[in-house]
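ingest -> validate -> predict -> emit
validate: passed (alphabet ok, no gaps, 250 aa)
predict: started
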Amino acid sequence: MSEPYVKLDIDNEVGYIEFFHPAHNSLPGAVLADLSKTITEAGQNDAIKVIVLKSGGDRTFCAGASFKELININDSATGKVFFSGFANVINAMRKCPKFIIGRIQGKTVGGGVGLAASTDYCMATKFAAIKLSELNIGIGPFVVGPAIERKMGLSAMSQIAIDANTFYSPEWAQSKGLYTHVYESTEALDEAVKTTAEHLCTYNPEAMKEMKKVFWKGTDDWDDLLAERAETSGRLVLSEFTKEKLKGFK
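emit:
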């Protein structure tokens, strides 16, 4: 696999949404836009009762946003658009009327942690360590912060946001409520995800839709909130501190 993609496959009423980018699944704006659109369309597709969010490749679930695009931001408007990419995906997941199961096969960083936290039921392998690295380059996990705080609590979110150099173990993430189960292998994870998703398809779709509303109660302002957070990140990325830090990635 060398070309980025987002694809949707339907099997036994489960919609499997898979994204991929060759740079450790770090996602540029075009892939994020396609992912947001695909999630929205799957939510409206009557042939789908439950959604699984997954990524291609074996080693990394998602390395966050594209550093190549990040380095090339030269004005605040472009910065806001860039950081709105993950905001739009999170809001698409929030508004989707169907349960979304997260399948986290490997390490996940930054925006990828936000995606995992925005699923309704998240399952992982023992390789799926998490890290919020944004403070290292002079910004912060502003856009994904609300999703992570909602799932793991303010204490856990602040811990990994401040300790930006450390990968936290999947077991730690499970203890804080991000993961429901941690499996020994990707094969075991995939079997459990399939079993769980297909079992959920036997439930009343209307009941699941109403439960989803309960899960996301209190987030109706997130369209505005995450846009404001994207604007904050877009401003900070232009700082001299961040520009100097990003030179090391060129």
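The two ends are 24 Å apart (CA to CA).
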